[in-house]
Design a protein that fits this description.
about 325 residues; alpha+beta; Pdz3 Domain; 6-stranded antiparallel sheet; 5-stranded mixed sheet; globular
Length: about 325
């Protein structure tokens, strides 16, 4: 009897330890999971706006990304819509989780400004956008820029030649030889400073010199209406379309008409809707929120359509197309 009890306890202990190992031990892979869509109305503040009285309105949708535990690594299918990704697909070139997070939040900050600009211009409000330079959004580890350039630095000149956009920065670097040092004039925390940075050959284009940074356009936005967006700790640029639609909806154009509209897509200043990642998971999140319509960039339509068969998915390539889709259906 005692022998049987000892064997039983050993089996129970083994099961507990195995369960602990499977669910608590992290692996070198990441798992992407659906996240329920959420209304944008509580995140956008506009003078004189009226709060929504029901669950209808414009919704944004995100994904959840984290280290996969051992069980998820072996069997990602325990979660609906899960995608298992190797570390280099999430944090390329040895970028840490912290660095990726900072870059993602930076993307979100700019996407909010672009969304406000696109929405107000559609409403006939004058928006002033002044190019300021190329803002650093990521510094790659072990690159010439590592330890010299910082995230948030705005590059305004290279070797004395002015830089107002990322395109101008790339044009200047066509005349730089890999291995050559360049003198950057940057604005760091609103203060000008000059730094010297080395270069190396680009991994994909060996003839091109790079510092090891990722950049985006830095602009000064002046809006005629005091619109504020607070997305909290949500990162990435994919909520741009949803924010712009919500602003238009709140400022007088009834876009939702009692429907739950979920939208995803990065917005450019000219109103172009750009493809984004995690569309399969976002489609599931839209469905779980009870969406009547799911607006996605043209480039993501097939993936979204294949992810859910009980949701109306509408592809759009511009902000005007998104508005037309909501006002004519």
């Amino acid at each position: 009897m005692r022998r049987r009890l000892a064997i039983l306890l050993s089996v129970v202990l083994l099961v507990v330890l195995t369960g602990f190992a499977l669910t608590w031990i992290e692996t070198d892979h990441y798992i992407v999971l659906p996240d329920r869509a959420r209304p944008t109305d509580p995140l956008v503040e506009i003078p004189g706006e009226q709060d929504a009285q029901d669950d209808s309105g414009i919704y944004m949708v995100d994904v959840r990304v984290g280290r996969a535990n051992l069980l998820e690594r072996i069997w990602p299918g325990i979660h609906e819509g899960a995608s298992l990704l190797p570390e280099q697909a999430v944090n390329p070139h040895g970028v840490s989780d912290t660095q990726r997070r900072a870059s993602s939040l930076n993307d979100m900050s700019r996407s909010q400004l672009v969304a406000i600009a696109v929405a107000l211009e559609h409403l006939g409000r004058a928006v002033e956008v002044t190019p300021l330079g190329a803002e650093v959004t990521l510094v790659l580890p072990d690159s010439p820029a590592d330890g010299v350039v910082q995230i948030g630095d705005v590059i305004v000149a290279v070797n004395g030649e002015k830089v107002k956009t990322t395109e101008e920065l790339r044009d200047i670097f066509t005349n730089v030889t890999a291995g050559e040092e360049v003198e950057l004039t940057v604005r760091r925390e609103d203060k000008p400073m000059t730094i010297t940075v080395g270069t190396r050959a680009d991994d994909d284009e060996p003839q091109r010199a790079v510092m090891g940074v990722e950049v985006q356009n830095a602009e000064d936005f002046h809006f005629p209406v005091d619109v504020e967006i607070d997305a909290g700790n949500i990162g990435g640029p994919s909520a741009g379309l949803a924010f712009a639609l919500d602003i238009v909806d709140e400022m007088g154009e009834d876009l939702d008409r009692g429907r739950t509209i979920v939208a995803t897509g990065a917005l450019a200043l000219d109103g172009t809707v750009l493809p984004i990642g995690g569309v399969k998971q976002k489609a599931i999140g839209a469905r779980e929120a009870g969406a009547d319509i799911f607006l996605v960039p043209d480039g993501n339509y097939e993936e979204a359509q294949n992810a859910v068969d009980d949701l109306q998915v509408i592809p759009v390539s511009t902000f005007d197309e998104a508005l037309s889709a909501l006002t004519t259906r």
